[in-house]
Every structure is written in structure tokens, then in C-alpha cells.
């Protein structure tokens, strides 16, 4: 899932919520329809985003999983680049929107903290602004799960906002919600990915694009040996 845009209300830093899966699911269920309408054409304006996804598409081979796919905009973009790609998302509301919007693609409900995929079955995994809703101390387990489901030579692409703070949202798209998102340090994420067994491939950090982005954006492409 991509983080809600900066226009939503935020209460500032707070402690980690042990029920983050429930709150994240409920928040995205509430905003799914409006979220899809707002972000539907975002990739058309994102030159760097498309370039990064294109590099991933040329690196990956075999089936690809878009983890935290939301309404499926990245999934369908990757399909258009020739990948055999499916999506999984924590939010049933998001999956319902994705299935309606892109009926020819496969979308399932599931959590990145417990991927229901066999060991070594995937050629690529994309986590496009989706790990940002997982408390950072749980990232090593998530990255180990990505490593498990990838075949040797498979690639993982992770995208996120740069920083070291937590933001807590209370409103989005006219809905009252409870949602937390974490800005992350690329060097720390890179260390965790190496610890999980990945080899570094490429790291890109770009400047924020006004008016909506407030922080740099990071993209890490790594490979399972």
C-alpha cells in the first residue's frame, strides 16, 4: 500500500501500535475507492518511478508478486511491461477495488508479515511504499520472508520515503482513520536487506517533487544470490 498523501491530518510521532495490522487494514478499507481514484494516474507523472519499475522488470524473471498492491496500479504497470505479476494486500477493500479495476490480473488478501507462498517460487517481489506501515523493528522478519519466497537470482524492489520518524494519520479522503507510517533511512534498510541474505544491486534517492512530496524518496533493488 502506498502511504496516504501528505494532505491528510497527522498527530505526529508516537509509540509503536501492536495492533498495526488491524488499524492499517481498517484505514485502507475505509479509503479504498477514493484512494484509487486519486492515485490512478500517478505513474503517468512519475518519470523516475517508471524508470525504476522498468529496471526491475528487466531484472526479474518468472512470476512476480506486488506486495501491498493496494488498488493495483503498480501491478498493472508491471503487467504492461511483460511480467507475470499478481498482487497481495492486507486490505480486502483495496483488493476488491483492484479486482474490479483490473479483472484480468490476480489479487489476493494477505499480509507481508506472513506471505502464503512456497519457498523459492517467485522471480521477483515489489514492495512499493508498503513496508512503511510495518514498525521498523519488524522489518528484518518481513525481509526474511521476501527472501524465502524468491528463487535464487530473484530480485526485490523496495520503495519508501526517506527519514527517521513515524507519522500518525487521523483523517484521509474525508474519512476518520487510524494509520501510522514510517519514514526510513536507506542505509539502514540496505543493512537489513543484506542481513536477510540479499546482495545489493542499485540504490536511488531522488528529491521530493512538489507540491505533495515533502521528503526524498528511496528505491532499493537487491538480489537473492
TrEMBL record:
SUPFAM superfamilies the record matches: S-adenosyl-L-methionine-dependent methyltransferases
CDD domains linked to this entry: AdoMet_MTases
Record-level Gene Ontology MF annotations: methyltransferase activity
Keyword terms, alphabetized: Methyltransferase, Transferase
GO BP of this protein: methylation
Every Methyltransferase domain range: 64-154
Gene3D superfamilies, sorted: Vaccinia Virus protein VP39
Keyword check for Amino-acid biosynthesis: no
Coiled-coil stretches: none
Alphabetical list of InterPro entries matching this protein: Methyltransf_25 (IPR041698), Methyltransf_Superfamily (IPR050508), SAM-dependent_MTases_sf (IPR029063)
Protein name per the record: Methyltransferase family protein
Amino acid at each position: 500500500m502506498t502511504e496516504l498523501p501528505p494532505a491528510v491530518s497527522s498527530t505526529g510521532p508516537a509509540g509503536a501500535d501492536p495492533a498495526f495490522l488491524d488499524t492499517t487494514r481498517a484505514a485502507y478499507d475505509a479509503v479504498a475507492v477514493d484512494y484509487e481514484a486519486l492515485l490512478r494516474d500517478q505513474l503517468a507523472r512519475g518519470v523516475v518511478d517508471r524508470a525504476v519499475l522498468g529496471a526491475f522488470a528487466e531484472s526479474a524473471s518468472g512470476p512476480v508478486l506486488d506486495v501491498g498492491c493496494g488498488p493495483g496500479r503498480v501491478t498493472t504497470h508491471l503487467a504492461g511491461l511483460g511480467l507475470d505479476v499478481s498482487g497481495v494486500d492486507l486490505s480486502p477493500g483495496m483488493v476488491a477495488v483492484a479486482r474490479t479495476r483490473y479483472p484480468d490480473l490476480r489479487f489476493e488478501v494477505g499480509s507481508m508479515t506472513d506471505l502464503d507462498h512456497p519457498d523459492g517460487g517467485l522471480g521477483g517481489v515489489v514492495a512499493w511504499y508498503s513496508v512503511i506501515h510495518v514498525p521498523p523493528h519488524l522489518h528484518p522478519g518481513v525481509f526474511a520472508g521476501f527472501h524465502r519466497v524468491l528463487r535464487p537470482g530473484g530480485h526485490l524492489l523496495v520503495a519508501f520515503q526517506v527519514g527517521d520518524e513515524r507519522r500518525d494519520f487521523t483523517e484521509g479522503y474525508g474519512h476518520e482513520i487510524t494509520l501510522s507510517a514510517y519514514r526510513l533511512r536507506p542505509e539502514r534498510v540496505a543493512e537489513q536487506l543484506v542481513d536477510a541474505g540479499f546482495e545489493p544491486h542499485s540504490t536511488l534517492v531522488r528529491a521530493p517533487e512538489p507540491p505533495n512530496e515533502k521528503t526524498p524518496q528511496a528505491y532499493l533493488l537487491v538480489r537473492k544470490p
